[in-house]
Amino acid sequence: MNERPGRQVRWQELTKGECFELLARDHLGRVAVVDDRGPVVFPVNFVLDRHMVVFRTDEGTKLAAACRGGRVAFEIDGADAAAHTGWSVLVRGETAEVTDPAELARLRRLPLQPWAPGAKTHYVRILPAALTGRRIPGPSPSDRGG
Questions:
Q1: pTM of this structure
Q2: Per-residue DSSP letter, 8
Q3: Contacts for 14-21 with beta carbons within 8 Å, 24 or more apart?
Q4: Helix, strand, coil shares of the chain as percentages rounded to 5?
Q5: Which of 7, 36, 57, 98 is spaced 20 to 30 A from 86 at the CA atom?
Q6: Residue 123 CA to chain centroid, in angstroms?
Q7: Cα-Cα-Cα-Cα dihedral of 101, 102, 105, 110, to 10°?
Q8: Minimal CA–CA distance to 125: which of 142, 115, 110?
Q9: What are the Cα distances from residue 12, in Å, to 26, 69, 128, 144?
Q10: Which parts of 1-81 fold into alpha helices (H)?
């Protein structure tokens, strides 16, 4: 980051409500899981449902993590490079594959359409244990030389 000497970057912690607002309006995030080769991060389309992140997947690493109740991190963010502002939301929790037929029927009615090819017939829910968010505000007038 190109910072002038003396510039103080001030993080603003987001409230849980602000974090949920951002999660509700975004639909592309990244889920980090650990497999036999170490940590790996995947982009996923998601929807916020009852304060839980839900995404669809096929057989593979993400589903394997869900089937074993693996701990994951899920992140979304936004940035304005010109204004030097941004935000991020991080969900930490456990994954679980949704298998209940009634719950699957309800989830299939949600606006959750994967962009990646494949059937993506498995629904995975992230059960949040921790939810945090940060915002980087724009530079103050003194940082801009004003």
A1: 0.86
A2: P
A3: 14/87, 14/89, 14/132, 14/133, 14/134, 14/135, 15/133, 16/131, 18/133, 19/89, 19/131, 19/132, 19/133, 20/48, 20/51, 20/131
A4: 15, 45, 40
A5: 57
A6: 16
A7: -130
A8: 110
A9: 20, 32, 21, 19
A10: 16-25, 61-67
